[in-house]
Please model this.
Amino acid sequence: MGVKEKRARYKEEFRRDILGAAREFFIHEGYEKFSMRRLAEKIDYSPTTIYLYFKNKDDLLFAICEEFFGHFSAQLNRIRTVLPRDPVETLRQALLYLMNFGLENPNQYKLIFFTKSVYGTREELVERGSMARNTYFAFKEMVQECINSGKLREVDVEVMVDTLVIASHGLIAKTIYGAAVPKDRSGIVALTLVDALLIGYRK
Model:
């Protein structure tokens, strides 16, 4: 490995170290208490060094969200590739993946979805190239495939995506902020909710 490759590898590893430490800081201390100076103290580097990689805490939060949506997008592609060619089952599994992730990782889910919008409005999200944008369009494509197959009613695709995602967020938010669904029942509650939503859109 040459000098340039070693330097690039080191920079990428250091960037990941910063992201990992920032993620833990955001999760345990919250967005309001987060500062680049406190993060620098935590990882024993100068704030100046961190600013070489990220311009502010919103830039860090954006990178953390993008990392999640990158993994999520890859999982959606895997679901679409591996499952039998039943578009409704594909959509069902995608929704269950989202809900199970939130139920099993409430603090990380809270950070990504309920801390602060780093993507702006939906219009801004669509215009801005990002992994979150890719995930949104993947859901739209899955819903459209269900409609095109004749298995779901012909309704506005964005309305259906909003309904499915908001309902999914609702269960997770209830777990995070309200009376938690008992752990031994959370899976069946998620499954029941997803099935009920999709049945409601059946032709």
